């Protein structure tokens, strides 16, 4: 381990010891509230899955919590926090009114079917208002997100290449054009993990992913969609809206906005707002950047489209002065499966 790695490990161990001792004295919730002071915290969820469904999904583990963990989070929020609605959140930002202590907003990105099936009953039971950011091109369709499609297609190609040498040569050449040929070197036990890591790498490149999806479809055909990776339909959106859930824009195609031309990025931002407003007959106030990626042009497009606020994925409590770059805290299973870990993550310790 490098000296830097050792220092990081020591810091991580010290934080875990601190969290454990605060948890045993029951002081963690009080300490969390001191740490946050009057800065609201915005939690980001994507997928809420039954434990048995996790391995069937092509979503990266960094966007998944299991249903029992999510239920624990919501019960703790109800008990320890002042959970507010999007309307109240926006009203306070717009009027520069300070937030009450321990204010918290719960958000979901994308519009997955499990937001309706798994999360919505728990939100109702705990009386938690929430906002769901929709990538409108997927709602009510059988389409897959490019992230999940690339992951599934890479494993399809890997499997077929093992049995067909001519296909392997063709796949090698075509995947190499997109820097993905390392997939073919994966072994049985690591094919899924390798594919998920490669999708993560593709995200980090900040390129338009349509050519990669097209190349994989030309090679393989479209992969079969796993039922667990389905999206909500508009009837479910309407039902949740009638039950008090707010909806916000998240683009149409979920492509990374800074990777697109200015015109395309503006269309994505504006169209997702219009799609939701046409369906719900109400104004849409908030936007979440797909993958949290934005730049000055994108933020300007969001403001021009009439959104009042926009959320990224940079972590930490909200700085109310940054209306179009609001911070959130991403929730996934690993660091939040225990109540004390969840509270420590909310407070930005882990
Ligand atoms: Zn998203």
Could you say what the CATH topology of the largest domain is called?
A: TIM Barrel
Form type:
globular
Oligomer: single chain
How far is the N terminus from the C terminus? Answer: 21 Å
**Residue ranges: pLDDT <50 for 5 or more in a row?**
none
Count of DSSP H/I helices: 13
Instruction: Provide the CATH superfamily of the largest domain.
Output: Glycoside hydrolase/deacetylase
Describe, in plain words, how this protein is organized in 3D:
By secondary structure, the chain is of the alpha/beta class. The protein folds into two domains: 260 residues, TIM Barrel (Alpha-Beta Barrel), CATH 3.20.20; 79 residues, no CATH class. It is built from 13 helices and ten strands. The strands form two sheets. Strands 1, 4, 5, 6, 7, 8, 9 and 10 form an eight-stranded parallel beta sheet that branches. A two-stranded parallel ribbon has the order 2-3. Strand 4, helix 4 and strand 5 form a beta-alpha-beta unit. Helix 3 packs parallel to helix 5, helix 6 runs antiparallel to helix 7 and helix 11 packs parallel to helix 12. The mean pLDDT is 90. The structure holds zinc ion. Zinc ion (ZN) binds next to strand 5.
């Amino acid at each position: 381990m490098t000296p830097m790695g050792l220092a990081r490990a020591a810091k991580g161990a010290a934080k875990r010891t601190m969290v454990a001792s605060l948890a045993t004295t029951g002081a963690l919730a009080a300490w969390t509230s001191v740490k946050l002071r009057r800065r609201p915290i915005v939690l980001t969820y994507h997928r809420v899955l039954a434990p048995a469904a996790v391995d069937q999904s092509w979503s990266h583990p960094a966007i998944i919590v299991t249903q029992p963990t999510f239920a624990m989070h919501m019960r703790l929020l109800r008990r320890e926090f002042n959970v507010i609605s999007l309307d109240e959140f926006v009203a306070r930002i717009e009027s520069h009114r300070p937030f009450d202590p321990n204010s918290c907003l719960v958000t979901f990105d994308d519009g997955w079917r499990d937001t309706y099936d798994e999360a919505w009953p728990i939100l109702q039971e705990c009386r938690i208002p929430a906002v769901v950011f929709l990538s409108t091109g997927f709602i009510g369709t059988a389409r897959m997100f490019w992230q999940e499609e690339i992951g599934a297609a890479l494993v399809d190609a890997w499997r077929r290449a093992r049995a067909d040498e001519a296909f392997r040569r063709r796949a090698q050449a075509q995947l190499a054009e997109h820097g993905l040929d390392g997939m073919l070197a994966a072994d049985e036990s690591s094919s899924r993990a390798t594919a998920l890591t490669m999708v993560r790498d593709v995200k980090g490149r900040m390129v338009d992913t349509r050519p990669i999806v097209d190349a994989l479809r030309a090679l393989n055909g479209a992969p079969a969609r796993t039922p667990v990776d389905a999206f909500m339909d508009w009837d479910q959106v309407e039902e949740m809206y009638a039950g008090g859930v707010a909806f916000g824009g998240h683009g149409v195609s979920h492509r990374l906005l800074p990777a697109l031309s200015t015109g395309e990025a503006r269309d994505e931002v504006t169209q997702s707002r219009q799609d939701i407003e046409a369906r719900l007959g109400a104004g849409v106030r908030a936007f979440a950047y797909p993958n949290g990626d934005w730049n000055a042009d994108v933020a300007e497009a969001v403001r021009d489209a009439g959104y009042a606020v926009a959320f990224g994925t940079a972590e930490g409590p909200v700085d109310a002065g940054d209306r179009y770059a609001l911070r959130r805290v991403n929730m996934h299973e690993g660091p939040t499966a225990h109540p004390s870990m969840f509270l420590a993550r909310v407070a930005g310790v882990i």
